[in-house]
Amino acid sequence: MKLLPCVEVEPTGPANAAVIWMHGLGADGHDFEPVVPHLDLAPGLNVRFVFPHAPSIPVTLNNGFVMPAWYDILSLELERRVDDKQLRASSAAVGALIARENERGIAAERVVIAGFSQGGAVGFELALTWPERLAGLIALSTYFATRDSIVPHAANAALPVMIGHGSRDPMVDERFGQQSAARLRELGHPVEYRSYPIEHSVSMEEIKDIGRFLSACLAA
């Protein structure tokens, strides 16, 4: 499989952990690159940040306009319809980046998966089905698109998850985040749910919380 093109931010010392972070619809791998210096990670954590670019595809919701997207979105209602096949293909493509981190000396248990909006939906599918234990999952302003069809892998049955969502989000209603947290708890995951007084974005408070979550996941 040809690897997705990525933006990579290397630590000052030899990497001992990695975060693979997926952007939202219409964005690219540079979207969350500016966040890295503000995470205030724990001393000794040398994290490589990998921000893959989604391919450009027609998006039905946007009248077939071609844009960077992890999968096609067919409708926006609460039970939103997406192209599950494309979502799982994107999950597999990002999974290849986990394998590359393994080849570069970072074990799966030192890898955190993160995603915003569409990228978060891919993150749910990828992290919960990955056959090796991962360090954690961060899902931001997103929804669990495959919550009813996912086949979780036992390796990540206790995967810690942070969900962050804006209480004023006009694009992905906060109900999606709450619904995702409920489903994850049904599956037995420890979930840290945080709501922020923002729209479809991240705030500095949320960035600091992400940094704390990463530091905790990668402390061992």
Write structural notes for this entry.
With 220 residues, the chain is α/β, with parallel strands linked by helices. 27% of the residues lie in helices and 21% in strands. It contains four helices and nine strands, in the order βββββαβαββαβα. The strands form two sheets. A seven-stranded mixed β-sheet has the order 1-3-2-6-7-8-9, with helices on both faces. β4 and β5 form a beta hairpin.
Poorly predicted runs are none
* Number of structurally distinct domains: 1
Helix content: 25-40%
- Largest sheet entry: 7 strands, mixed
CATH architecture: 3-Layer(aba) Sandwich
List the helices and strands and how they pair.
Blueprint (H helix, E strand, L loop, with lengths): L5 E4 L7 E6 L24 E6 L3 E4 L5 E4 L15 H20 L7 E6 L1 H12 L6 E5 L20 E6 L7 H13 L4 E6 L7 H14 L3
Parallel strand pairs: 2-3, 2-6, 6-7, 7-8, 8-9
Antiparallel strand pairs: 1-3, 4-5
Helix pairs in contact: 1-2
Q: TL;DR of this structure?
A:
The chain has 4 helices and 9 strands; from the N terminus they run βββββαβαββαβα.
